[in-house]
Amino acid sequence: MNFKEWFLNETLKFSDAQKVQGKLTDYKPGTFGIEIEFVPTKEVDEARARRAWEEYIRNNDETLKDNFKESKERKVESPEEWLNNHPKPKREDFDNRSDYTDELYHKIWKDELYQWKQDKIDNSSDFLYAFWEWRNDLNWEDYLDKEDFLDKTNVKADIALAGKILEKVGEKWVEGDSTPTEWGVGEDYEYIEIRSKYLTIQDIPKLEKILYKLKKSVKTTGGTSAHVHVGLQQFEDFNMVDLLATVKLIDENKMYQLAGPTRESKWALSKQKVADFLFEKIKENKILNDTAEEIISNETLKEIIKSIETRYLGTNITAFTKIGTVEFRYLSSLILNEIDEFIEAIQYFLMIPYIARRQDSVKLLTSNNQPIYFTRMPNNKVKISTIPTRKSGESIDSTRKIIPPTKFQQRKEELKAQTKITSGKGYTFELEDAVNDNNIIAIENIINKNPNDISYIVNYAFQHAIDYLNMYIMKHLTKKHKEIISDKAIKLAVKTAIQSNDPKLIQFVRDNVVKDYQTYQSLNDMLPEKLRNTEEELMISDLISGD
Predict the structure, then answer these.
(1) Could you tell me which residues are beta bridge partners of residue 362?
(2) What does the alpha-carbon distance between residue 336 and residue 349 come to, in Å, rounded to a whole number?
(3) Which of 38, 202, 226, 311 is in Cβ range 3.0-4.6 Å of 331 for a Cys bridge?
(4) CA distance to 43, 135, 141, 238, per residue, from 48 (Å)
(5) Smallest Cα–Cα separation from 333: which of 482, 228, 431?
(6) How do residues 412-440 score in pLDDT, each as one tens digit?
(7) Looking at the DSSP assignment, which residues form a beta bridge with residue 365?
(8) Structure letter (DSSP) for residue 313
């Protein structure tokens, strides 16, 4: 099998990701987001622990006394120990019999042994006082399970801790769900979850700093998750075959290995379970009931995927039908112990959709090894079958939905057409490059070399600068060649400023481009109050006095 065949038909091995990325000449990853859970700080409920300890003492008094008797704190020796430490006197050790007899029956030997026997009764006040003193010094955690008395407390402090980590690296955050521009921190059932804003690969260095700080500051387990959402907004025609191809391509063996043995698989079900759910829903929709293959619309397949009741899939495709992302749920937040591999996994996930779009057909296996094939067909339709099926013979692009071009694409085509019209002028491309490079000297050189085309050059450069919102070049041209700029170019600048709703661009066009009072005032009214000119300032402006 050559590289192209492997590339289009097999699982994308995690270890091959960099090699494959080098083959993707159009690879421009979009946005992604992460969700990291951690265990909240738990403290002992002192009152509940004290009541439990008092009850334990009442119910285990005799056991504790036995422990006391065997402890080092009890000073009285056992008979064996006492006799070893106080051997019976020998006659030869004494000068006379009288001294020997006194020693033999002295309290130092006989009475001490008797005293030990008395203590054995364990009802003397000395014993009880000694026992109570010993018991009061006991640590209840040696007898009761501390975990039984830990409660989730001070959630606000845990949320604030995560917030401070984000602030230290210059990130804004809110309590609760994240926004496209702000991180979010909030409760997620029994855990605390950090939810990122929209991220791109340019944010990875800062993300690494956040992850390293989290690693040092919070507790994670196999039960706390680390999810990655991959945005697909860069693909306006991303369809359901693309989506199922992401399931097929994922290297689940590597993902489960990264997740580790303590990650419960019920939170990240395998691609076989995805196939199970799909097959069940396909049958519910009376598809493939009497035939081995059937062609349905992309929208019908989308509704089938949307009807899957669980989101606990390793590759959660239901997220696409609801929020437009693919969610990869395989990892636990123990991955914070392997941050480099986590970053590699994120980059791997970002690449999957690009390869998915190149798949002609997707084969998924159910838990019973029942194959299901999803094959692209013309007019954005999908052939579903339970047997190997012939490909449509059409190009992959022709099997996608025909989507009207965006405004950006329309403008791009207009610029391309305009370039064709003016391509007879040898300096056109040189002029565009000069505008794109902010090279004022190059623009003026073109003007000086072509004195008969000054009006055309200035207006062409000005309009090109408008198209790319290049205020630097626009400012130069309006300052040096304002009298040459055409009404058509001015109208284009005004229209672009209004559509952009960008205060800086509106203010620039107001102050440097427009020539009539009515347009000036209209743009002025669009600006925030602090940027507006007052009526008195309008009346004394050079613009108005010129009229």
Answers:
(1) 374
(2) 17
(3) 226
(4) 12, 19, 13, 56
(5) 228
(6) 555 555 544 444 456 777 787 788 777 88
(7) 371
(8) B
